[in-house]
Amino acid sequence: MVRSESERRPSEARSRLLKTAGQVFYAEGIHSVGVDRIVAEAQVTRATFYRHFPSKETLVVAYLAEADRAMRGQVDAAVAAKLPAADTIRALSASIAQSIQSPDFRGCAFLNAVAEYPDADHPVHMAVLAHRQWFLDTLIGLLARIEEQSAEPAAHHYVMMRDGAMAAGCLFDPALVCETFLTGVERLLEVHASRFSARPDHI
Fold it and tell me: What pLDDT sits at residue 51?
């Protein structure tokens, strides 16, 4: 059944609210932006806002869910190429480096958000932790295809390098930051693969 224009409008309004929130939260911070600003820029009423998002925190969680979907899309694109695990990690790293060098880059949306919501029991904080756990688990899975025994510490090392690059990318020359990050990834992959080669059962 074809939906009427009036039936489609609420989802369009929700999309505008999410798009607006994503832009201003990322560029200016979450606590510094009020509901009235988002309502005005999204060109909806306050009633429409609260119909889709019962509170500002609900909108923040939805904003992070959108950022999570975008990151998962990057990972899915790298995995879909069906390359060897090391090349998949290289492709993902190149995608991260490309985002760091984009003109509107303002750091990691998740690290920025968790800095504003330090309470570990807050839904925003928990959303950040859930995203980061997924990312870590993804790296562990990829690195385990190269060498299983040291995959977890190598994944933690990768995430640390990625966090450092995301933090430094909006403070220093992003091209130099990305060069350093990608060089570090290559070295990590080299060391990780060498551990497999050095295992007694592989010799």
Answer: 94
